[in-house]
Amino acid sequence: MRSAEASGASVTGFGAGRGQAASRRPVSVVDTASVSRPFRISLSPITLAVALTSLLAATLFVAYDAARTFDDARRDLSIIGAVLASEISGMSAEAASEAIGASGQRFGAIAQASLVTSPAASGDELTVPAGPHGMLSLESAQASHWTGIGQRGAAAFGLAGLIVLLVARRRRDDMPDMVQRDNYRTLAAAIPMGVACWSKSGKLIVCNEQYRSRLDLNSFSMSYQDAVKRLTIGGYIKLVNEDDGNKVLELHREDGSCLLIDERPLGDGALMTLISDVTEAKKTDTMLHAIRQEQRLLARRYHEEKLKAEAASRSKTNFLAHLSHDIRTPLNHIIGFAELMRHQTYGPLGDARYSDYVQSIKTSGEHLLASFATILDLAELESGQKALRSEPVAIDELLDGVIQRFRAQASRAGIVFVLGEASGAVVRGDRLGLSRMVSNIVENALRFTPAGGKVALNAFPARDGVVVEITDTGLGMSEERLASLSQPFALGDSTFTREGVGPGLGISIARAIAELSGGNLAIDSSPSLGTTVAISLPLPVANALQAA
Predict the structure, then answer these.
(1) How would you class 198 by CB atoms within 10 Å of its CB: exposed for 0-12, middle for 13-18, buried for 19 or more?
(2) Topology given in CATH for the domain delimited by 9-15+181-277
(3) Which long-range contacts (CB under 8 A, 24 or more apart) does 280-288 make?
(4) Which of 282, 346, 354, 437 has the fewest CB atoms in 10 Å of its CB?
(5) Helix/strand/coil for 3
(6) How far apart are CA 86 and CA 94, in angstroms?
(7) Cβ atoms 491, 497 nearer than 8 A
């Protein structure tokens, strides 16, 4: 388990590599921005609004205080004037003058009092009727009023400045204003994963419910480092990607869960942390990785087995070639000597039965020679050692030659052998190989069709090829028998075991020739209904384009 300190977590984020970068920074370089930062006040819209509001409130307070102070002073002068006027109304002129002169000591609000003959023209003076003495003029002490207004105004502006400083100080503490916090809160609530926003000093600004449930938080009073320690309990952190201030990390826990931590800067040193659970995704990736590894292993094994099979096929071909040569040579001698004995070249054999024996020896030898030749041909075709020529072959002429070859055999067996309409198709291939391909299928059809049956040979031209079909009304085959036809030397059950059947390679050789010619061979059969063999052969490119 790795602790938060070991993983590089701090109030500035998961600082993988930050410590090393900081240690490499030259100490002689002076960061003027960091030096001047304590003397700067960043005025956000909220801070500016608070400052203007405080100054306006202080100004309005001073104006109101001045108006109220002078209004109160005028009202006091009016009351004092009424009192003095009533007192001096019954006095003589000398006594009235003495009373007015002493009024400044009696009433501190009066700066000067005198008797006048006309009302005061200035707003700072107040005149009241004084009976037989005329008009009493009173002037307030404005200096004291202005002093009080100035003191109260200074206090108001000082309070406003204090409020501005407190707001600015809150900004310097990296905490956003209320509008920004509300924006962060709205953003966090809209994101469907754990989201937390941190100030530069590591204080939690806002987080959503998913983040709270992930850390099991009951309050918002948590620092960034405490949150990291909670996350990394019983696990370790792995750095996945780091680019332009963005960091992507994986947190692997002891319970097998995996959290993806994405850190993104928000400006002014703030930080946003996104947490999502990628446990299932990691399990899927692990499973896909295991599958890919298994696929690579299987592909390697397949390649190895393929090489072994190709080597075995080459060995088989070489073995059959040597075996055919070793057997065909003595068989040719046996057939030759049997032919000499059958003609009694050097004298009579004696007993008449010897002639039948010699004929059987010759016939069996010729059958064995043909069988070995067929086996060798199939081996060479399958291994690609026997190259086929490429020449124009008219399908109609090819099928007509097959009809002429097997017509007498079909007539002796009592089988109707017919040829369909001309197709006019011309393909490129080996004439002898294609003729052998069709002949093998026709020979099988005639062999397994009883007397009174029918064998039809047809060719159907298409836009890009031609299909040759050999259809018979013979014994047919079951699905199991059809499946075994893909394997050479498959003779089937005893129903198909007849004299002179051979090694059962006719269909295998026909299929090999069709595939080497670029075509395909398909068989459809049902017991007691018959069999249809379809051979598709491609047309040359020029003919196909002309047909299109």
Answers:
(1) buried
(2) Beta-Lactamase (3.30.450)
(3) 282/258
(4) 346
(5) coil
(6) 16
(7) yes
Q: How far is CA 134 from CA 82, 96, 107, 245, in A?
A: 13, 11, 21, 88
Query: How far from 367 is each of 328, 408, 470, 500, 525, CA to CA, in Å?
Result: 11, 21, 26, 8, 29
Q: Which tokens is 198 given?
A: 């941190």
- Report the number of secondary-structure helices (H) and strands (E) in the chain: 16, 18
Query: For the segment 299-352, what is each residue's pLDDT rounded down to a tens digit?
Result: 999 999 989 888 887 777 777 777 777 777 787 878 887 888 877 777 787 777
CA–CA separation, 272 and 199 (whole Å): 9
**314 in Cβ contact with 383 (< 8 Å):** yes
CB-CB contact of 337 with 358 (8 Å)? no
**Structure-token pair, residue 84:** 């003095």
Q: H or E element: which one contains 314?
A: helix 279-343
Q: Do the bridges between strand 465-472 and strand 530-538 make them parallel or antiparallel, or are there none, so unpaired?
A: antiparallel
The model's pLDDT over 127-154, given as tens digits with 9 standing for 90+, comes to 777 767 677 777 776 777 788 888 888 8
List Cα–Cα distances, 339 to 333, 343, 345, 353, in angstroms.
Answer: 10, 6, 9, 15
Yes or no: say if 467 and 460 are a contact pair by the CB < 8 Å rule. Answer: yes
Would you kindly state where each structural domain of the chain is located, as residue ranges?
Answer: 9-15+181-277, 47-167, 301-377, 387-547
Q: Is the pTM of this model over 0.85?
A: no
The CA distance from 199 to 217, in Å, is 18
For residues 50-75, average pLDDT: 83
The alpha helices in 390-455, defined as continuous H runs, are 395-412, 431-447
Q: How many CA atoms lie within 13 A of 78 on its CB side?
A: 6
Of the options 3.30.565.10, 3.30.2350.10, 1.20.1070.10, 2.40.50.100, the CATH number for the domain spanning 387-547: 3.30.565.10
Which DSSP string corresponds to 321-344? HHHHHHHHHHHHHHHHHHHHHHHT
Q: Do 9-15+181-277 and 387-547 fold alike per CATH? A: no
Token reading at 416: 């109707």
Q: Name which of 438, 428, 446 is nearest 543 in CA terms.
A: 428
Burial group, residue 210, by CB count within 10 angstroms (0-12, 13-18, 19+): buried
